[in-house]
Hints:
The protein is of the alpha/beta class. Helix content is 39%, strand content 20%. The longest helix is centred in the first third of the chain and has 19 residues, at 80-98.
Amino acid sequence: xxxxxxxxxxxxxxxxxxxxxxxxxxxxxxxxxxxxxxxxxxxxxxxxxxxxxxxxxxxxxxxxxxxxxxxxxxxxxxxxxxxxxxxxxxxxxxxxxxxxxxxxxxxxxxxxxxxxxxxxxxxxxxxxxxxxxxxxxxxxxxxxxxxxxxxxxxxxxxxxxxxxxxxxxxxxxxxxxxxxxxxxxxxxxxxxxxxxxxxxxxxxxxxxxxxxxxxxxxxxxxxxxxxxxxxxxxxxxxxxxxxxxxxxxxxxxxxxxxxxxxxxxxxxxxxxxxxxxxxxxxxxxxxxxxxxxxxxx
Length: 297
C-alpha cells in the first residue's frame, strides 16, 4: 500500500515510516521544512511539503495514497484551542478526500478524559464531541466518516510512547528534575499511566492500516499501569538525584505544563487490540528505558 503520513518526521511518525518501508509499503510523508523532506527522501519515502493548515496539500496527499495515517498535531500547550481547531480542520479535510473510497483513515487520539476510576477499553467512546471539545472532537468526527465509506481507525496512544530520543512527557519530567535538583511525583505517587515503546506503537499502526475494520478503536498500550512514583524513582536513579513528593498545589511550579498531565490517571487496556491484530508488544518497558539512560543522553 501507499500511505500518506502526517507527522512523518515526528517522534511516532518517523518510526511508522521506518516500519512501513521495512514491510514493503510506500510512503508519502508530510514535511514542514526542506530538512524534514530530505530526511524522508533519504529513507526512500516521498516528501510532500506543507503543514496542518495547508488543507489543500493534505487532500492532495490523501488523493495520491491508498491509506492515510494522521499523526501530526500542533501540540501548542500555550494555545490549546488553536491545536484543537487545526486538528478538527485537518481530519475533516482528510475525511472529505477519502469519502466514498473505502480507504483507511487512521487518526491519532489520546487516552486522557475517556473514563474515570478504571482503565479505558476500546469499547469506550470518546466524550469529546464538537469543535470546542478536546482535540476538536476529532476522534468522533473521524468516526462519522465510516457512514461515508471511509475505513476509519482510531489510534489511542498511551501518555508515554517511550524510547531513546523521546521528547514527550517523560522528557519534560526529566528536565524538571534536572532544574529542581530532585525527581518529583505528586502526592503519594499512586496515579498511574499506561506506556508503550515507540517501535511497538509503529508496528501496531502498520497492522491497523493493513487489517483493522472500519470504526475500530485501537489502543497503543503495552503496559496498562506504571505509577507516577515508579516513573519519578527511575528518573531519580538515572540522574543520581533524590526523589520527593510534590504537593498537588505545587505541581504547576515544579513540573511546568506537564504537571497537570502527571496528576491525571491515564490508563487503558489493549486486550481487544492485541487479539484483533495479533499484536504482542515486545519492546523495553518504560522503567527499563529510563534506567538504560534513554532520557539522560
